[in-house]
Design a protein that fits this description.
Number of strands: 15
Shape: globular
Radius of gyration: 22 Å
Helix content: 40-55%
Distance between the termini: 17 Å
Strand content: 5-15%
Structural class: alpha/beta
């Protein structure tokens, strides 16, 4: 392990002098987007920021003022069919390890002679933690979704892994992971390596964190949504005759759901005064929906935050990003989760009293319409949304995240 050259991050009064900060992520909207405003703020404060990312996100990263450090990834990309991720737990996790192993030599070369003073990393970027260890610099996880709580392993991880661990394939996965870590001087077991960072900034509102009272806040600090104004993504105008606007979006990954979209059209198209904005993603052709009336707007992509600021209802997959955007704009939600943490997010939103959790197999036109009418006219839902929105504003967001990163620099 080499010694870091801490030549640029020293305290002068109450502020750090500019440092080289390196961020690492994967090519997925839900992992990159939450970090962008934090990176933009660090650049604005005078720090030199590099951002290791596959080419698909290079332009988006460059817009923040950070310098993209490009590497080739073997993970399914943002335009790939979501079925490329497979269906089992091992299908989901093996690609991240394989990608990390092949990406590490690229990143070592990309940072040769330019080791940073601090590493920031997405939870899925295993090479970042290896590199921080090699360079002898602090690492901070920027978590775009929930984090582990006291008891998480016993309550969630161990039951989930009980069967895969018994298989030859599961044992080979762990052996490969442990071997790779040891090759890089890390003796930690893969589970805490991946899930228990030494320092973490959580980029979601605390109200979306399960068992928040059991999260170690000496490690994890909830800074809430870091959204920015998103004006560069474009605007959206509410039709003059729209009494109610509903946005339907399943995010950017699990969008290949033409039958669900047809149910949404049936649910909202003939509601008097309602306007439906239907984002179908890149894997569904609008023609698959059949004829749609004038009050239905079908798009492959929309500037989501701009629409939500004017919407009365949000039908969402309950990803971490979409969930907090619904909360930040005080928009009632129907949560129709598709994968991973979205099921838990849907339950959290319903528990907050601001949404209805509607499983995909139950998301018929009739059920969608009934949930929508109940939510948009309920004053208690509106009250809870206003309360949650106010609490989120106090978490600090982008500026607090940047302050905490600079505090880590000052302690080196």
């Amino acid at each position: 392990m080499t010694t870091s050259r801490m030549t640029t991050s020293r305290m002068t009064g109450t502020h750090t002098t500019p440092a080289h900060i390196a961020m690492f992520s994967i090519a997925a909207h839900g992992h990159v987007n939450p970090s962008l405003e934090v990176i933009r703020e660090l650049v604005a404060r005078g720090h030199r920021v590099t951002y290791a990312i596959p080419p698909a996100f290079a332009d988006k990263v460059a817009e923040t003022g950070a310098r993209p450090v490009l590497y080739t990834s073997t993970l399914p990309g943002p335009d790939d069919d979501p079925e490329a991720w497979g269906t089992t737990l091992l299908d989901n996790v093996e690609p991240f390890l394989a990608d990390a192993i092949q990406a590490l030599p690229q990143l070592i070369k990309g940072y040769e002679g330019d080791a940073p003073d601090l590493v920031l990393h997405d939870i899925a970027s295993y090479p970042a933690r290896v590199l921080a260890h090699r360079w002898g610099v602090p690492a901070i996880s920027l978590s775009p979704n929930l984090v582990a709580w006291d008891g998480y392993e016993e309550e969630v991880a161990e039951p989930m892994w009980a069967e895969p661990r018994q298989t030859e394939r599961g044992q080979a996965y762990y052996a490969r992971f442990e071997g790779w870590l040891k090759e890089n001087g890390i003796t930690q077991h893969p589970d805490p390596f991946a899930g228990r960072p030494a320092r973490s900034l959580v980029l979601i509102p605390k109200v979306l964190q399960p068992n928040a009272d059991r999260v170690d806040e000496r490690v994890h600090t909830f800074v809430g949504a870091c959204q920015g104004d998103r004006s560069a993504q474009g605007d959206w105008q509410r039709p003059a005759d729209a009494e109610k606007v509903v946005l339907v979006s399943l995010g950017s990954a699990f969008t290949k759901q033409p039958e669900f979209y047809r149910e949404c059209v049936r649910a909202f198209a003939d509601l008097p005064g309602w306007h439906l904005v239907l984002q179908v993603g890149r894997h569904v052709d609008g023609r698959e929906l059949g004829p749609v009336p004038a009050n239905v707007e079908v798009r492959s992509w929309v500037p989501q935050l701009a629409v939500l600021r004017q919407a009365d209802l949000f039908v969402t997959h309950a990803g971490a990003g979409g969930s907090q955007e619904g909360l930040a704009t005080a928009t009632p939600m129907i949560a129709v989760p598709q994968a991973v943490d979205q099921f838990g997010n849907a339950d959290m939103l319903q528990g907050l009293g601001v949404a209805r959790h509607l499983p995909m197999e139950e998301a018929t036109a009739q059920a969608l319409r009934a949930a929508a009418l109940a939510l948009v006219d309920d004053p208690e839902v509106a009250r809870r949304l206003t309360e949650v929105q106010a609490g989120m504003a106090e978490e600090g967001g982008t500026r607090r995240a940047a302050d905490l990163i600079e505090a880590e620099l000052s302690g080196v």
